[in-house]
Amino acid sequence: MSEKYDYEQEVLGYLKQNPDFFVQHPELLVSIRVPDPHGGRAISLHERQLEVLRERLRLMEAKISEFVRIGNENDAITEKLMRWTRQMLLAAEPAFLPQVVVDGMQHIFSVPQVALRLWGVRESFQGLSCAMPTDQEAIALASSMKQPYCGPNAEFRAATWLPQEGTLTRSIVLLPLRRGVDPNAFGMLVLGSADAGRFDAEMGTSFLEQIAELASAALCRLIE
């Protein structure tokens, strides 16, 4: 076994060091026959090389198609993010911002269920619906989160802020809102769906983190 292995390695080494070997001996390309991996018949070395190249080409085309698809999806997300950010920047009054944030999630990002809660709100904004009293459990959860939660609705208290108190929510996103690097959250943006696969635990959180950062930067104007 070892002698055969050494011999094969010696042949491979020679061919690598002499890439023009088959140019000098073209008759070998026709005379050497190798098994066809698909049909079992013997084919020429040249035909086998063509098959290998075709297979590699198919794999490369598939990868390119996947890259193009991902790129198109990222472009669409970026465009939506810009539209949403523009709307927040154009809000004439800080009091309009909570509704702008929620409307953007619903109409620009097509999220069926959206809720927003803020605490520690300035007195002049305490009449807003997003400033209604919030359960301490939800507040503690928001401050303890290091990154957005994306996955099944595990009966979170924050899910009760959604339509019909979250009874129809199967998948959910929890986005804690913070002022800069402050570890304590001042609010939470909740996205929900009746589709259990809409917000999957395998989804990346990079895009969600951008949404949380932008919403936080806009809404911190309402906080004491």
Please state the average pLDDT score: 87
The CATH architecture of the domain at 94-222 is: 2-Layer Sandwich
Kindly identify the CATH topology of the domain at 94-222.
Answer: Beta-Lactamase
Please state the oligomeric state of the protein chains shown.
single chain
Q: Which stretches are poorly predicted, pLDDT < 50 over at least 5 residues?
A: none
Sheet bearing the most strands, described? 4 strands, antiparallel
Based on CA atoms alone, the radius of gyration comes out at 30 Å
Q: Distance between termini? A: 78 Å
CATH classification, class level of the domain at 94-222: Alpha Beta
Produce a short descriptive summary:
The chain is α+β, with helices and mostly antiparallel strands and about 220 residues long. The protein is built from seven helices and six strands; from the N terminus they run H-H-H-E-E-H-H-E-H-E-E-E-H. The model has no long low-confidence stretch (mean pLDDT about 85).
What does this structure look like?
The strands form two sheets. The chain has a four-stranded antiparallel beta sheet with strand order 3-6-5-4, with helices on both faces. A two-stranded antiparallel ribbon has the order 1-2. It is 47% helix and 13% strand. It starts with a helix and ends in a 5-residue tail after the last helix. Helix 4 packs antiparallel against helix 5. Strand 1 and strand 2 form a beta hairpin. The protein has a domain of 129 residues: Beta-Lactamase (2-Layer Sandwich). The chain has seven helices and six strands, in the order H-H-H-E-E-H-H-E-H-E-E-E-H. It is α+β, with helices and mostly antiparallel strands.
